[in-house]
Each structure stands twice: as structure tokens, then as C-alpha cells.
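Hi everyone,

Forwarding the result from last night's run.
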Amino acid sequence: MVEIAGARLETAQKRSQAAVQRLTSLMPGLERNGDVQLLLETRLAQCEALVQLGPTAAARACSTGLEHDARARGFARVAQRARTLVPSSM
């Protein structure tokens, strides 16, 4: 959780690329351990960083995929936050 907070701080400091790299490096371990909640929170922070880099197809794909996965696993709050990250007009 400290790593996720650190990545969110990097995003707030306009160092989104560093945040994306930090979060990407966390995912294999979370997947291996089966920690679904932390994995979804990590993906949410990664989507937030991608959005800050610019409203791109990558940001849209990240938020759409996360919303789907979070909803399927019963994490409605994460799904809702993912859905509101990228404007639908993009």
C-alpha cells in the first residue's frame, strides 16, 4: 500500500511516467499472491497516472478494463472510480 501511495504522490507531482513504471513493477507480485484488492487499487492508481499523461487510448483502455474487472470481482467502488477517470467524449 505504501508503494501505491508513493506512486500517487509521483502522479500529483507531475511525474506520472515514473508512477506508471513503479506500479507496473508491483503487479506481477500481487498477481502471484492473489491479492485482488491491492491489484485493483494498483491498477486504479496506474490508470490515474495514465490519464494525467494525457487522454489517450491507453488511459481509456486502462480505465475500461479496470472497471470491467473490478465490477466482475465485486469491487464496486473501484469500478465506479475507474468509470469516471476518462471523459466519455474522448
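The chain has one domain: 2-83.

Cheers,
N.
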